[in-house]
Amino acid sequence: MKRPAARAGALAGALTAALVLAGCGSGSGSAAELSVSGAYMPQPVSASMAAGFLTITNKGGTKDELTSVTSDAAGSVTVHETVGGAMREVDTLEVPAGGRLQLASGGNHLMFEKLKRKPLQGEKVTVELHFADSGTVEVEMPVESATYTPNTGS
Asked: Quick check: 108 pLDDT over 80?
């Protein structure tokens, strides 16, 4: 009689181990792993608006979405997508699994509207990036010259 119980216990243990190992893989089901690089704001020429650029890299196996951006430096920060030379405000931008979302001059970008004061070159602007699954990531965005062009390495 002890044999069926022992086999059931061994089977339950093996099943538990298999489920734990299945959840530990670094395969396509792993959570998003976000990091931010290359953040900057060109010194605004306008007293009321500015743009912001950065790259969000996702080393995880699950996509995430940038859902909003906030900053104490502006009344609002909106996310814009540029497609075929046309710019439009969007609610979200996808950060693909194992990929990146690049916000760059001439492409997707952030718009800081109703600036509380005009940021100057050498200062930093703090922004909070809000994601659907990964929560909030705070970024220090240095203010560069109005003509700054980053070296992207490509």
From this structure: yes
